[in-house]
Amino acid sequence: MNTTTISKKRKFVADGVFYAELNELLTRELGEDGYAGVEVRTTPMRTEVIIRATKTQIVLGEKGQRIRELTSVVQKRFGFADGGVELYAERVASRGLCAQAQAESLKFKLLQGLAVRRACYGVVRFVMEATAKGVEVIVSGKLRGQRAKAMKFCDGYMIKTGHAGQVYTDSAVRHVLLRQGVIGIKVSIMLPHDPEGRTGPSMPLDDAVTIHEPKEEAPPVDEAPVY
To answer: Structure pTM?
Structure first.
């Protein structure tokens, strides 16, 4: 990430490539430790990379050794100056409401040889117990036999279209390299409404109608007639 002057279009492309490569690196390195996404913040002094994970203690490592190693790798790969990039670990508020964490969990269940149906229903139940509005898990590939097929496991309520679908739905895709071939996993979670914006979007759904209690009106006072 050199500081040379480039056009706006090239900067957006460079930022996108940087994010994609960084996300791929962290997915491969921290997949088993509940990696749930990354956020890049650019300040005039340095670039801050916030790693979201369920097991932050393992991401940090003993006495912060692992996070320092990752910082060194990112710094050398992208050409940052000394102290130009800083990595932080942030704990995910609710593991059951994070699609990436659940997709990684399902991936490692399948790699360990657990039956597809049992693994998927376990994820669906765990997500719904975490107060999600709905969940959908799609697994496709050579699940049994030589013929490839797709299996879909759903529960609850799911909006897929429009602005609400973009705001309320969290999705993640993973690929599992099994002996018989590649299995594709897609996990979509419909997040609950949270006015504080911690576990879900603070924006209410368009069709959510709130009926307020009527205000108590003072009884009318009979005035004496004027003659």
So the answer is: 0.79
Residue 211 tokens read as 């009926």
Q: Which of 21, 35, 112, 32 is nearest to 74 (CA)?
A: 21
Q: Which two tokens mark 202?
A: 């603070």
Torsion angle in degrees (nearest 10) through CA of 112, 143, 119, 57: 50
Structure tokens at 39: 């956020």
pLDDT in tens, the chain (227 residues): 555 678 999 989 998 999 999 999 988 888 888 888 889 988 888 888 999 888 888 888 888 888 889 899 988 888 888 888 888 888 888 888 989 989 999 999 999 989 999 999 999 999 999 989 999 999 999 988 889 999 999 999 999 889 988 999 999 999 999 998 999 999 999 999 888 888 888 888 888 888 888 888 878 777 767 67
CA atoms within 13 A on the CB side of 156: 22
CA-based R_g, the chain, Å:
24
Contact 159, 169 (CB under 8 A): yes
Q: Which amino acid is at 225?
A: P
Query: Which amino acid is present at 6?
Result: I
Positive or negative: CA dihedral 31, 33, 39, 40:
negative
SS3 158: coil
How far is the C-alpha of 63 from the C-alpha of 215, rounded, in Å?
59
